[in-house]
Design goal:
This protein is mainly β. The protein is built from 3 helices and 14 strands. It has a 7-stranded antiparallel sheet, sandwiched between helices. It has a 3-stranded antiparallel sheet with strand order 3-13-14, with no helix packed on it. Strands 1-2 form a two-stranded antiparallel sheet. It has one domain: Pnp Oxidase, Chain A. The termini are far apart. Strand 1 and strand 2 form a beta hairpin.
Length: about 200
């Protein structure tokens, strides 16, 4: 079956009609139509200080061995901490975690002073137990530089799941899964240890 160069019924054009590369703003608009879960990626630096940022560039890579990837800007302090520690945590936020998502997307240096978190047994990596519906602890398996970002491959070494619906982001707004409860709660999700005061 052939591919049409244009699709007037939905207002889109086919491949080859743009006449060149796509500018960053247009690409960002395109990606903004793709709904994703919302995560906060956390790690610790060489001095044991916690670092973290909101990240929705999370992808499953392989089940055997369990591996995922995240993409972080080259200048990210969290990326530097991941390089220091050799590990990181992916905190999948529930629908009650919007404030935390916005906090870790900001430039504030005191982010961990405003959330409940605890250091993981053994590694000391930060878990955002109050705001996560699931947590994956990872060991760095590889890194690849691509444009202005670094792709970090993480071998998943531990997973904890709790309850509640995941927080979603798309079309420049937060939401929850259609037809599901909000999952709002004031304490840690069952199955995830109680947080250590930041």
């Amino acid at each position: 079956m052939g591919t049409s160069a244009s699709h007037p019924e939905n207002g889109t054009t086919g491949p080859g009609t743009s006449g060149g590369g796509t500018d960053p703003a247009t690409f960002r608009e395109f990606m903004g139509t793709y709904y994703t879960g919302v995560t906060v990626v956390t790690s610790i630096d060489g001095g044991g200080r916690p670092h973290g940022l909101t990240c929705n560039s999370l992808t499953s890579v392989t089940l055997a061995p369990p591996t995922l990837l995240i993409c972080l800007g080259h200048r990210s302090g969290t990326l530097a901490a991941i390089r220091d520690s050799g590990g990181f945590v992916v905190n999948l936020l529930h629908t009650g975690g919007r404030r935390t998502a916005e906090l870790f997307a900001s430039a504030r240096a005191d982010r961990f002073d405003h959330v409940g978190w605890l250091p993981s047994d053994g590694t000391g990596l930060p878990w955002l137990a109050e705001d996560a519906c699931a947590i994956a602890e990872c060991r760095v398996a590889d890194t690849v530089s691509c444009g202005d970002h670094t792709v970090v491959f993480g071998r998943v070494t531990r997973v904890e799941t709790g309850w509640g619906s995941p927080l979603l982001y798309g079309m420049r707004e937060f939401s929850g899964p259609a037809g599901r409860g909000t999952g709002l709660h004031s304490g840690p999700a069952p199955g995830i240890p109680a947080p250590h005061p930041a």
